[in-house]
Amino acid sequence: MAKDSRIEWTHHTFNPWWGCVKVSPACKHCYAETWAHRLGKSLWGKSAPRHSFSNEHWRQPLKWNREAQRAGDRRRVFCASMADVFEGRTELDRWRQMLWPLIEQTPNLDWLLLTKRPQNVEHMVPWTDIWPENVWLGTTAENQKYADARIPKLLGAKARVHFISAEPLLGQLSLRKWRGIDWVIAGGESGHAARPTDPEWVRALRDECKNADIAFHFKQWGHWAPEMPKGASARRRIEVGTGDRTRSVLYGLGKTTAGRMLDGRTWDELPREGQVRESAF
Description:
Blueprint: E1 12-13, H1 31-38, H2 55-71, E2 75-79, H3 93-104, E3 109-115, H4 121-124, E4 135-140, H5 144-155, E5 161-166, E6 183-187, H6 199-212, E7 215-220, E8 224-225, E9 237-240, E10 248-252, H7 255-258
Parallel strand pairs: 1-2, 2-3, 3-4, 4-5, 5-6, 6-7
Antiparallel strand pairs: 8-10, 9-10
């Protein structure tokens, strides 16, 4: 849990528990699993336990809500960075039953529920046609295959905001066939074994979002970047691109040096306040 998260698109993170099971290519180099291992915790896999937290931990969002109310603004809470709220394990139900009322009791916090299991959402949440206004529901779509499988399930839920996390972006991705997406987060993979993201995949996704009036956030290049900052040196250099398209040169710089500039600017867009609409591709 973090009151002031270092994740660019949220203010805080809250984890009802730690631990998960890998379900798709985006999970291969899971940072949460790596972080847990650094702390000596083995929490990943079907037979591994899940790590729970104290009552004090669960009271923290109530404090954040009071602080946001006093400040007269809203704060975003990413739930959960070290787990998946919609993992299909019945022993997690007791913590889910603590989470839903906590969300309802904190109306000054926008809760970002990001899952790779959107097919489980309708069976686990207590809401049907009327969801709390402060729930943003998202799913990971690392390539077209997983977008096609997950996004219809995501959009079937009546959350006020629907968002896509295309991080790490591992292939071409088009969202043209769907209406109702409010926000897209894209980014490359970090770490020494990071898989490269073709800059043309990012640009195409950004352009689709611009044309459809969907908020676009570019989080990072990750380990591989298409430009060499002045004074930097690359650990490796590769080319990416398929078919007749122009091939791009990527430099292995590491996350910090690679940065998050895309075509000369940062992209930090958010869904508009009070936005309830259908995206029009």
